[in-house]
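queue> holo job accepted (adenosine-5-diphosphoribose)
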Amino acid sequence: MADRREKIFREAADTLASRRNAVALTGAGISVESGIPAFRGTQGMWEKYDPMEYATIGAFLSDPEKVWAMLSEMVDVLSRAVPNPAHSGLAEMERMGVLRSVITQNVDGLHQAAGSQRVIEFHGNAWELICLSCWNRYPSREKIREGIPPRCECGTILKPNLVLFGEPIPWSAQEEAESEAQSCSVLLVIGTSAEVSPACHIPRLSKGKGAVIVEINPEETPLTRSVTDLHLREKAGDAVTLLLSSLREIS
Ligand code: APR
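queue> job finished
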């Protein structure tokens, strides 16, 4: 078992080192070790709040105060989180010239906080608020300190600039992510259940262009037996740390 684990890690590190041109696709799992629970699963946000009731654009438009009950809990957790070794390991891989960019479904800003330069935020960012009446934008932290739900100068309740169910992916993020996915030669898929479209289609785009798909997740996902070439069945922090030390040895 230990041999098999070692072999898969060695193969993943060799692939990253020789192909170099890697992109990471990350999901909530990469931030679990930073203290942010994932969405799905027993500790998940969607166990407590039904996303169809609390996380759709329709729900926000009809009852923003109710949706802010969920959002304020989320913002509270996010504001206490700091990057973990998986975030900083990806930033280091970028500095080493192994990783080109990170496409993240997360809205926590932890990749940037860890030092990653090229981050494509597929589902937006929680740290900006937007007014759906006059399109004013505000930094979240300051506005939230004034009270929940935060309001625009025009009186409208503000929405975090993140993608709720039923909202489109920001056009530039969608375009950039597709282009990165189609031109990378390794895709590191870290901590995503791959259940939410369109992000879950990104690995197939990369695979179709010949990329090697390396999945880091302690569990299996719909990708594992269909698209994934190498499954590192570990927590993100451990797996990225190990990959990084192998990469340092090789290069
Ligand atoms: N390291 C790596 N992966 C982990 C860890 C960990 N320490 N802990 C959990 N995971 C894995 C889980 O096994 C699961 O496959 O992370 C995944 C988290 O899945 P989700 O909670 O579904 O998160 P994600 O895939 O990012 O969700 C996609 O759904 O609700 C929406 O907009 C929200 O961006 C989110 C999208």
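queue> The chain has eleven helices and nine strands.
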